[in-house]
Design brief:
By secondary structure, the protein is of the alpha+beta class. Helices cover 36% and strands 21% of the residues. The chain has a two-stranded antiparallel ribbon.
Length: 95
């Protein structure tokens, strides 16, 4: 790695029988200011989700709440920012 270098990875692993997703980035300063700006926007989206997430919260409501800081900053994202488990993951499969 050299100054200004950026390494990104998406890691798909399994934990407790469920697939988990980790997206990470490691950067060596100095990096372009836009990376700091995007970090701040991503953190604002995450914090908005922490405030809104609760049992029974609708997926679309969480997606809207998480996208508000992104749109306010003048950015957009193609897929929803929130990930969720399908209801089938909690289905009773006992005989």
């Amino acid at each position: 790695m050299q100054p200004g270098g950026l390494v990104q990875a998406e890691i798909m692993s399994y934990h407790g029988g469920f697939e988990t997703q980790v997206q990470m980035a490691v950067a060596v300063e100095p990096v372009p200011r836009v990376l700091h700006t995007l970090h701040d926007v991503a953190r604002d989206c995450y914090d908005a989700d922490l405030q809104a997430s609760r049992p029974g919260a609708a997926f679309l409501d969480l997606a809207k709440v998480m996208s508000e800081p992104l749109l306010k900053a003048g950015h957009y994202n193609m897929p929803p920012l929130v990930h969720s488990l399908t209801p089938a993951a909690f289905a009773d499969t006992s005989p």
